[in-house]
C-alpha cells in the first residue's frame, strides 16, 4: 500500500508510459560480466522491429570489448528480466515476447571480461 | 534624581524577544489552515514550545558573523585571483574537478535555500522558523560564494560557463537534481530529515572536509576558503537537523516509524549521491589527501555510527542500508570513474586514465578490490587510448527510477554482477539499482513514476534545442544533444590533448621561465 501523503489528489500518468513514445517502446540491453560498458543501454524501437536489429545495436556498442569476437552465439544465455528466454533473430520484438521497458540480459559463459574481472 | 538605566538584556532574553516573541497565533483563520503542511505527513506535534533552539542566534548577530566571514573570504579570493592562483594548482587535471563541482553543487545549494525558505514559512513554531530562515540565507551564501570562487577559472578554462543551463538537462546532474526535487516536494518534516539530517550529515561532511582539504592540498586556495567558510555554517545546519529529529521523536511515539522510514530512505539517497564525490577524491585530485574509503570510514561509519547510537534511546535503529554502504565504499568511486571515462563526448569536463603511480596508490588504498576488479580494465583503456582507439561508448544509459544514477552498481556480495531490481506499478515496469531504491519506489510509486530520466526524455523528443521539429519524418532523437546541453566542444574528450592541458602548460612556462 502506498505511503504517499499529499494535501490534494495526486493522480498523474507515468512519465514513461508507452504512449509517449509514438509507437515505439523502450528496451534495455546488458552484457553480463562486461561492466566496462558501465551500465545497460536503452533503445526505443517499434514492437515490429526484428530482434536482429537489437543484435546490430549490441555489436555497435559491445564490439569494443576483446571478448566480443570470441562469442559462441549458440551458447549465449539470454534473459528477459529474470526470465530465461531464447530470442529468434528473425522474429520481431513482439513475437519474442519483448514489451515496453524490458531488460534483455545476455550472458556469454567462459567470457568474463578483461582478465576475468567481470569488466 | 538617579538615572534609571535599563538593564542590559541577557543572551537568553534577547534571543527570546528577537525570535519567539515576534511570533503570534493567527485569529482570522485557524492555525491549522494557515499551516496545513505540518500535519499532513502524519507527524504529531503537541507543543511547539518544546522545540529547543540549538543555538541562540538572532538575526542581528547572524549578519555580523556572516559579514565578517564574507570579508575574509573575498580578501583571500581577490588575492588568489590577482596572483594568478590558478597556475599554482598541482596540474591542469585538477581544474576538471571544479567543473564537476560547479555543475553539481551550487545549484543544489540554491535548492536548499529555496527549501529552507519554504520551511521558514511552513513550520508553526517560531523557533524552527527562525532557524530555517537563517539556514536559507546560509545556503544562498554558499551558492554565491562557490560560483564566485570558480568564476576566475572560467576566464581561462573551458566548460564552465553553462552550468546553470546544464543543471536540469545533463544526464549526470540528474541524481543531485532528483535528490533535491524529491525532498522539496515532500512535506516539511521529511524535508528536514532529507536535507537537514541526511544531506548535512552524510554528504556535506565528506564534501566539505576531506574533499575541500584535497582542494587545499592541490593548491586551490579559492575553493579551500569557500569550503571552510561554508563548513562553519554546516555545523549549525547539522545541529538543526538533529534537533528536528529529536523534537519529532519526543513529541509522540507514533512519529518513530515515520521518522525511521525517512532516515532509511534519505541515508540511502545521500549515499548514492556520494558516488561521484568518491570519484572526485580518488581519481580527479592529482594529489590525494585520503581515499574515499578512508573518508567514508571516518565520517560515515565512525561519526554516523556514533550519531545513530545517540538516537537509539529514542528507538531509532541504524539505517537498513548501512551494511551495504560499507561494502560499496570499496567499489563506487571506481565504478563511477569508468562510467564517466567512457563518455568523453558527453561531459563538460575531461577524464583520463590514472598514471601508473596513481594506480599504485589506488592498489594500496583499495587492497581488496582495485587490482582484482578495476586495474586490468583501466590498463586496457590506457593501451587502447595510446593506440588511438580511445573508449567512447555512444549509447544512452539505463537509469534507476529513484536515485536516477546510471545502473552501474554491483549485486551485493558479487562485484562481477550488475544489480537490477524491478517493480510493476499500474502494469508498467520500473527499474531500480538496489533493494533500497526499490523499497523507496514501492512505498510511493505515484511519485517516482514521475521521475525525469533524461535518456528517456531524449527518446520522447523532449530534449532538443530550439528549431528542431520533433514531428518531422526524418527526426532522429538525440542528434543535437551537444547543442541541447550547450556543451563547449573544447571541453570534450580526454584530458590528454585538450586545450586546457596545453594552455596550462604554456602559461605556467611563461610564469616560471624567461
Could you characterize what this model shows?
The complex is a heterodimer of chains A (119) and B (514). Chain A is of the alpha+beta class and 119 residues long. Helices cover 10% and strands 20% of the residues of chain A. Chain A has one helix at residues 51-62; strands at 25-31, 41-45, 77-80, 83-84, 102-107. Chain A is globular, with a radius of gyration of 17 Å. Chain B has a single domain, classed as Ribonucleotide Reductase, subunit A, CATH 1.10.620.20. By secondary structure, chain B is mostly helical. In chain B, strand 2 (410-411) and strand 3 form a beta hairpin. The mean pLDDT of chain B is 94. Helices cover 60% and strands 4% of the residues of chain B. In chain B, the strands form 2 sheets. In chain B, strands 2-3 form a two-stranded antiparallel sheet. In chain B, strands 4-5 form a two-stranded antiparallel ribbon. At the A-B interface, strand 1, strand 2, helix 1 and strand 5 of A face helix 15, helix 17, strand 1, strand 3 and strand 5 of B.
Task: State the helicity of chain B in percent bands.
Answer: 55-70%
Biggest β-sheet of chain A: count, sense, barrel? Answer: 5 strands, mixed
Strand content of chain B: under 5%
Protein structure class of chain A: alpha+beta
User: Biggest sheet of chain B: strands, sense, closure?
Assistant: 2 strands, antiparallel
CATH topology of chain B: Ribonucleotide Reductase, subunit A
What would you say about this model in short?
The complex is a heterodimer of chains A (119) and B (514). Chain A has 119 residues and is of the alpha+beta class.
Q: What attributes does this structure have?
A:
heterodimer, A: 119 residues, alpha+beta, five-stranded mixed sheet, globular, B: 514 residues, mainly alpha, Ribonucleotide Reductase, subunit A, two-stranded antiparallel ribbon, 22 helices, 60% helix
Amino acid at each position: 500500500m502506498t505511503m504517499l501523503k499529499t494535501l490534494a489528489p495526486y493522480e498523474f500518468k507515468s512519465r514513461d508510459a508507452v504512449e509517449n513514445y509514438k509507437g515505439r517502446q523502450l528496451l534495455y540491453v546488458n552484457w553480463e560480466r562486461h561492466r566496462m560498458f558501465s551500465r545497460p543501454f536503452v533503445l526505443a524501437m517499434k514492437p515490429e522491429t526484428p530482434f536482429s536489429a537489437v543484435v546490430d545495436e549490441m555489436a555497435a556498442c559491445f564490439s569494443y570489448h576483446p571478448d566480443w569476437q570470441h562469442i559462441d552465439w549458440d551458447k549465449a544465455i539470454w534473459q528477459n528480466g529474470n526470465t530465461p528466454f531464447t530470442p529468434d533473430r528473425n522474429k520481431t520484438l513482439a513475437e519474442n515476447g519483448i514489451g515496453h521497458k524490458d531488460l534483455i540480459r545476455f550472458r556469454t559463459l567462459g567470457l568474463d571480461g578483461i582478465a576475468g574481472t567481470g569488466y | 534624581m538617579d538615572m534609571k538605566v535599563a538593564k542590559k538584556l541577557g543572551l537568553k532574553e534577547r534571543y527570546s524577544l528577537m525570535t519567539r516573541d515576534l511570533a503570534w497565533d493567527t485569529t482570522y483563520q485557524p492555525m491549522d489552515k494557515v499551516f496545513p503542511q505540518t500535519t499532513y505527513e502524519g507527524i504529531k506535534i503537541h507543543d511547539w514550545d518544546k522545540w529547543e533552539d540549538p543555538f541562540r542566534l538572532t538575526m542581528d548577530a547572524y549578519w555580523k558573523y556572516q559579514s565578517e566571514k564574507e570579508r575574509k573570504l573575498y580578501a583571500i579570493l581577490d588575492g588568489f585571483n590577482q596572483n594568478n592562483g590558478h597556475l599554482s594548482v598541482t596540474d591542469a587535471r585538477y581544474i576538471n574537478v571544479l567543473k564537476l563541482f560547479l555543475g553539481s553543487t551550487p545549484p543544489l545549494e540554491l535548492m536548499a535555500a529555496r527549501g529552507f525558505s519554504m520551511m521558514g514559512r511552513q513550520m508553526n513554531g517560531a523557533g524552527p522558523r527562525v532557524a530555517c530562515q537563517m539556514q536559507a540565507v546560509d545556503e544562498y551564501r554558499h551558492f554565491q560564494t562557490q560560483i564566485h570562487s570558480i568564476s576566475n577559472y572560467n576566464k581561462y578554462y573551458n566548460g564552465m560557463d553553462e552550468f546553470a543551463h546544464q543543471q536540469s538537462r545533463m544526464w549526470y546532474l540528474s541524481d543531485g537534481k532528483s535528490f533535491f526535487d524529491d525532498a522539496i516536494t515532500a512535506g516539511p518534516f521529511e524535508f528536514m530529515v532529507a536535507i537537514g539530517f541526511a544531506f548535512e550529515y552524510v554528504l556535506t561532511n565528506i564534501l566539505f572536509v576531506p574533499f575541500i582539504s584535497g582542494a587545499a592540498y592541490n593548491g586551490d586556495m579559492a575553493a579551500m576558503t569557500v569550503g571552510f567558510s561554508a563548513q562553519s555554517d554546516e555545523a549549525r545546519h547539522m545541529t538543526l537537523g538533529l534537533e528536528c529529529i529529536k523534537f519529532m521523536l519526543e513529541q509522540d511515539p507514533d512519529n518513530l516509524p515515520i521518522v525511521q522510514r525517512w532516515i532509511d530512505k534519505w541515508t540511502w539517497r545521500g549515499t548514492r549521491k556520494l558516488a561521484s564525490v568518491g570519484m572526485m577524491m580518488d581519481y580527479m585530485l592529482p594529489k590525494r589527501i585520503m581515499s574515499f574509503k578512508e573518508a567514508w570510514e571516518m565520517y560515515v561509519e565512525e561519526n554516523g555510527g556514533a550519531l545513530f547510537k545517540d538516537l537509539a534511546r529514542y528507538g531509532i535503529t541504524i539505517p537498513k542500508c548501512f551494511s551495504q554502504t560499507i561494502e560499496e565504499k570499496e567499489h563506487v568511486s571506481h565504478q563511477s570513474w569508468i562510467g564517466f571515462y567512457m563518455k568523453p563526448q558527453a561531459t563538460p569536463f575531461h577524464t583520463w586514465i590514472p598514471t601508473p603511480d596513481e594506480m599504485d596508490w589506488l592498489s594500496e588504498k583499495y587492497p581488496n578490490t582495485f587490482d582484482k576488479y578495476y586495474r586490468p580494465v583501466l590498463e586496457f583503456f590506457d593501451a587502447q587510448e595510446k593506440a588511438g582507439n580511445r573508449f567512447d561508448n555512444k549509447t544512452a544509459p539505463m537509469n534507476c527510477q529513484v536515485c536516477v544514477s546510471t545502473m552501474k552498481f554491483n549485486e551485493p556480495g558479487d562485484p562481477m554482477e550488475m544489480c537490477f531490481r524491478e517493480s510493476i506499478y499500474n502494469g508498467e515496469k520500473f527499474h531500480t539499482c538496489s533493494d533500497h531504491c526499490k523499497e523507496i519506489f514501492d512505498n510511493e510509486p505515484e511519485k517516482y513514476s514521475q521521475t525525469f530520466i533524461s535518456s528517456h526524455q531524449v527518446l520522447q523528443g523532449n530534449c532538443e534545442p530550439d528549431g528542431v521539429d520533433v514531428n518531422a519524418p526524418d527526426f532522429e532523437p538525440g542528434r543535437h544533444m551537444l547543442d541541447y546541453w550547450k556543451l563547449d566542444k573544447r571541453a570534450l574528450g580526454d584530458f590528454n590533448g585538450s586545450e586546457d592541458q596545453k594552455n596550462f602548460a604554456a602559461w605556467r612556462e611563461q610564469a616560471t621561465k624567461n
